[in-house]
């Protein structure tokens, strides 16, 4: 979805789109990379296993905020 719809680019080849996407992530996201499914899984595991955490909204965005 990122490469096909959300990243404005003139690149045609998938590898060029991926390179442009990674460069954009390094520039815009404070952690310098897009979040992965593993990042989301770790957050879900934390929320499911934390015994004293309730009613929290956890952002797994690498420090990037969209308003």
Provide key terms for this protein.
single chain, 67 residues, mainly alpha, 49% helix
Plain-language structure description:
The protein is an all-alpha fold. It has one domain (2-49). It is 49% helix and 0% strand. The model has no long low-confidence stretch (mean pLDDT 79).
In brief:
This protein has 67 residues and is mainly alpha-helical.
What are the secondary-structure elements, in order, as H or E? HHH
Describe the main β-sheet briefly. none
Q: Provide the residue-averaged pLDDT.
A: 79
For the termini, the CA-CA separation is 19 Å
What is the count of structural domains? Answer: 1
State the helix count.
Answer: 3
What is the radius of gyration computed over CA atoms, rounded to a whole number of angstroms? 15 Å
User: Which band does the percent of strand residues land in?
Assistant: under 5%
Fraction of residues in H or I helices: 40-55%
What general outline do the C-alpha atoms trace?
elongated
Task: Set out the fold topology.
Layout: H1 2-6, H2 14-28, H3 37-49
């Amino acid at each position: 979805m990122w490469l096909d719809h959300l990243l404005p680019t003139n690149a045609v080849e998938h590898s060029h789109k991926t390179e442009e996407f990674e460069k954009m992530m390094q520039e815009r996201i404070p952690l310098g990379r897009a979040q992965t499914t593993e990042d989301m899984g770790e957050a879900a595991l934390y929320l499911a296993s934390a015994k004293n955490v309730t009613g929290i909204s956890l952002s797994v965005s690498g420090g990037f905020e969209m308003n």
